[in-house]
Design a protein that fits this description.
Blueprint lengths: L6 H6 L5 H11 L7 E3 L5 E5 L3 E6 L2 H19 L8 E5 L9 E5 L4 E2 L9 H19 L19 H4 L7 H12 L3 H15 L4 E3 L8 E3 L5 E4 L6 E3 L21 H16 L6 H22 L4 H22 L2
Antiparallel strand pairs: 1-2, 2-3, 3-5, 4-5, 6-8, 7-10, 8-9
């Protein structure tokens, strides 16, 4: 079948009209029939070739993020962070497309979002163990050596986590949490030790949206690439470990979050040579922040059915994390 009439080439016309497509091919040298054309990205459209992927912002807001993404990919490539797709080129040609667009290498593998519903706990643990080591590769970069576009504070910090990163307010939060959640004075002391260890970590470059949609894995469920660097910034390392950024799939195993965080943070800490905080501190920090938020919603009468189930799970996780931290 002639390229000009292939279904995949016709699908490209939903992104680039025929005259623009001709200019695009001349500019980029991409003269093959696409392997795939994807329209399911929240902020980007994609033309997938045999060895590269062209990414096109959906609108002006996504176009603003494109500047950060291209800068991030360029910096990560220069620093040898191989888990990020390699940037192959970027262009801004209004006669082709209204917004800047770019190309990255195509990483062979499957998106974890397409696999997670069929994954058992053992496969999840394999994924998370490899993900922790992957996150360490960009957290090791020195923020002072990053380009200006990446040195701004992270824009993706959920409010209920942001307040638990404010060192001056931790004591008040822990005591209010004890009132909401029925914690004892001993619990507050335990909480404060773990919270302080997390909050005192030096800031790093965070991806900002680590979740199932951004992970390309191999046949063993080990991470090959972390994609979509649209919202990077500087922040506390725990921001890349927030299960709240993930979809519903991971919450099937909320009663095993301690085990999950042990695998995820454990491999990360080993890769970075960290001894503090340990995975128990991190599990306690997230468990307290989640339980506090859900208890507030329950008190205010704004908790839905999903939230009620999560409130019970988060309290159980908090009790477990508090016990483990207190026994050390």
């Amino acid at each position: 079948m002639d390229q000009s009439s292939s279904p995949r080439t016709e699908a490209v016309n939903a992104i680039l009209i025929p005259p623009a497509l001709e200019r695009f091919r001349a500019l980029t040298g991409f003269d093959e029939s696409p392997v795939e054309v994807r329209f399911d990205g929240w902020s980007k459209l994609a033309i997938v070739g045999r060895d590269r992927v062209f990414l096109f912002p959906r609108n002006h807001l996504a176009a603003e993020d494109a500047v950060s993404e291209v800068a991030a990919l360029r910096a990560l490539d220069a620093a040898g962070v191989s888990v990020a797709p390699r940037l192959l080129g970027s262009w801004h040609e209004p006669a082709i497309y209204a917004y800047p667009f770019w190309a990255v290498e195509r990483v062979v593998g499957e998106n974890w979002a397409d696999l997670e519903d069929r994954a058992d706990a053992a496969r999840w643990l394999t994924l998370l163990d490899s993900l922790g080591a992957a996150i360490a590769t960009w957290h090791r970069l020195r923020p002072s050596r990053l380009p200006p576009e990446l040195r701004r504070p992270s824009r993706v910090v959920p409010d209920h986590l942001a307040r638990f990163l404010e060192r001056d307010h931790l004591d008040d939060l822990a005591r209010r949490g004890a009132g909401l959640l029925g914690g004892s004075g001993t619990d507050v002391t335990t909480w404060m030790r773990s919270l302080a260890r997390v909050v005192e970590m030096p800031e790093v470059l965070v991806h900002g949206d680590v979740c199932e949609n951004q992970l390309i894995v191999d046949g063993s469920a080990r991470v090959r690439a972390v994609i979509d660097w649209a919202v990077p910034g500087i922040g506390n390392p725990v921001l890349d470990f927030n299960f709240g950024e993930w979809g519903f799939g991971i919450f099937r195993y909320e009663d095993r979050f301690a085990e999950f965080r042990r695998a995820l943070w454990g491999s990360y800490a080993r890769a970075r040579g960290l001894t503090s905080p340990d995975w128990v501190d991190v599990h306690l920090w997230f468990s307290l922040a989640d339980a506090f938020q859900l208890a507030e919603a329950e008190r205010d009468g704004t908790l839905d059915g999903w939230g009620a189930r999560r409130a019970a799970s988060s309290r159980a996780n908090l009790e477990e994390a508090t016990r483990m931290a207190g026994e050390r």
